[in-house]
Amino acid sequence: MADRIAQIAGQLNYPKGLLSGQVAIITGAAQGIGAEIARLFANEGAKVVISDIDAAKSKEVADKINSGGGKALAVPGDLLKDEYIKELIKRAADFGQGKIHIIVNNAGFTWDGVIHKMTDKQWDTMIALHGTVPFKLVREAAPYFRIKDGEPRNIINISSTSGLHGNAGQINYSMAKAGVVGLSKTIAKEWGPSFGVRANTIAFGHIETRLTANKELGAFVEVDGQKVALGIPGQQKQAAGPVPYLDIPLRRPGTATEAASAVLAIASPLSSYISGQTISVTGGRNM
């Protein structure tokens, strides 16, 4: 899909890339979908700001983009800390010589539990990371979006089919990701009329990342010293039946590159009249 977008861009006279000259903050960009978004954005001429709690991986992604001829800046830190959000916006604006054009609120993970066993810590962390953090980041960036300079401004908030349809064992994640839809629509309605800011939500289905890999592989994140295991138990996957991905019409999960390509498509001028929408990237699941 990325190659096809590049081909279309050339046909529409975007020789330097669909996002040439734009500055984009991408959260959760040190691996997985976020890293692919950063790579594709940089390929299309954007100056990308890599935001992630993992400093080493953030630097690795930025270095790879820069060594390939792109422009990237790693600004690692904890999005749950207000001081980091302020630093991120300031450094992004400095990197962009006073301008920021795109924010992709992608950072996040899951911390599952059934309703009657869900702890306050599990609930509060998911609501904060997936709901409050995107709001605070957008609020902090307001001076760079509420301007009239004729340049495009674009906010993309990442949701999930769990937010659109709910999911057993994910009441905290589902609640937060459902809220993201309202966040995007409100930004579109407030900042669209006077400033031309577009805001959209992209809801991913089953994408191959560490969040959907076998839990037994041992991936985890750490929250206040507590290890939170990531992934789906192998036994749960086996319980789905002998035909894999039967609930997905394309009969396969999506790749990180396919997910990132959808974000690029919405960020690009090819989607210049799309705002306030929720785009499902699911291989046809949940139709």
Automatic annotation (TrEMBL):
Pfam families recorded for this chain?
adh_short
Which GO molecular function, any one, fits this protein according to its record? 3-oxoacyl-[acyl-carrier-protein] reductase (NADPH) activity
Keyword Translocase assigned: no
Instruction: Specify the enzyme's EC class, one word.
Output: oxidoreductase
Annotated GO biological processes are: monocarboxylic acid metabolic process
Which EC numbers does the record give? Answer: 1.1.1.100
InterPro entries attached to this UniProt entry = KR_dom, NAD(P)-bd_dom_sf, Sc_DH/Rdtase_CS, SDR, SDR_fam
Ranges for the Ketoreductase domain? 22-194
The catalytic activity, as recorded, is:
a (3R)-hydroxyacyl-[ACP] + NADP(+) = a 3-oxoacyl-[ACP] + NADPH + H(+)
For the keyword NADP, the answer is yes
Which SUPFAM superfamilies does this UniProt record tie to the protein? NAD(P)-binding Rossmann-fold domains
The UniProt keywords, alphabetically, are: NADP, Oxidoreductase
| Protein family per UniProt | Belongs to the short-chain dehydrogenases/reductases (SDR) family.
* Protein name listed in UniProt: 3-oxoacyl-[acyl-carrier-protein] reductase
Organism expressing this protein natively: Rhypophila decipiens
